[in-house]
Amino acid sequence: MVDLDFFKSVNDTYGHAVGDQVIQYVAQALKGSIKGDDIVCRYGGEEFCILLPNCDGNNALAIAENIRAKIEANSAQAISEAPDLRVTASFGVSDSYAEANSVEEILAQADMALYAAKDGGRNRVVSWDSVRDKDLLQRAQKNLLFQ
Q1: Active-site residue flag, 46
Q2: What is the mean pLDDT of residues 5-31?
Q3: Catalytic pick among 46, 47, 81, 105
Q4: Structural domains in the chain?
């Protein structure tokens, strides 16, 4: 799961046209970072989901970190109407080996890891395995209820 950090403030500060450019930029960065049977989809407003069917959790973490760094490093050049804009994203990662019994459970785990990434300061990648810490999990679940 991928969520653009502070996206509402992008629309509020720069306008919806720039917000749309940001979403397009991130979508292109995501699509340009996958291969083969991998899939990127827009999951909601400024959220995306990346499916890596032939990838284990450790490799998924590495891919997510690579994409996160690419989004941050290249955003100033990519958004020509707002060259001072710094775009960052938070990532939550889970895999089928994380005791999930369905795709829905994998998505829920990735979503809770995403909220832990946001709770931990944003612009980071967090795995479901690291969210199993009870305090982090409780904060992530609380954030899910109040978003």
Answers
A1: yes
A2: 94
A3: 46
A4: 2-146 (3.30.70.270)
